[in-house]
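I had to read the description of the data format several times before I understood it. The format is easy to grasp once an entry is in front of the reader. For illustration, here is how one protein appears when written out as sequence plus structure tokens:
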Amino acid sequence: MKNNWFKNFKSKFKIIIVHPETYEEKGGFNMSKMKITMMVVIYSLVLIAGTTCLIFFTSLREMIPGYTDVTLDRRIYNIERRADSLEEVFRQKDMYIKNIKRIINDEIPDDSIQAMAHININKPNVTKNSMLKSENDSIFRLQFEAETQYNLFGSPFLNSTDKSNMPTFFVPVNGLVTNHFNSNNKHFGIDVVANVDAVIKSIADGTVIFSGWSVESGYVIGIQHDKNLVSLYKHNSALLCQEGDLVKAGDAIAIIGGGGSNSTGQHLHFELWFQGRALNPEDYISFEIN
């Protein structure tokens, strides 16, 4: 019985192709049950293998429920990198804003900014190396460093009495200086008494970084200039600029006043800061009454 089934399984059949109307024979081929079975199995295996490769090596696998996106790990990595970068930028911005507020409230800036004042302003940070230097080169370096160790804007004027080397600043308001700069008493600027409703002007081109009200200083405006220079104008009665505004030297930015708990009357309290260090404005600007 078994042999008959196997013999019948191997027996061949002839498949003939004929014309449907004339019944003319057009061709034919021999076929057996075993051959048909083998063709079906091989076709099924090829179909299964092709489908498997198509799913695992193409984006079609993402259509399978529960299968994760192939680019998910890369996108998570990029998002984490951007988050870290943004966190560092926000930290620096937050520190900068805090120091601006400390300056406005007549407080000493944080050590991270204050420490910058001990660095020579335009002196390059050169590390020692194994290169040999000639005697003339060493003498020239010493002379150059001695001339530029207090360089603020590229000209040695910070401790110099030569007015020609100083940059030109626009006078914020013409008036009488009634209280001078004294860092020992935490008076980091000067007080200038001027005419009623006198217009306060920007000393140089810059961007308004603070424009608002302070309990101690009344209406305050702060401007960021080139070379890390910041100018502050306190005790105003009105402000003419908002944060983010670009101003030119001589532009009207406020109206003189006497607001704030620290004010003793109508005047301008003017401060000049460089890298966390307060500068004496009278060293760079001449305040006179017209």
The longest helix spans residues 72-104. The longest strand covers residues 229-239. Residues 119 and 149 are 9 Å apart (CA to CA).
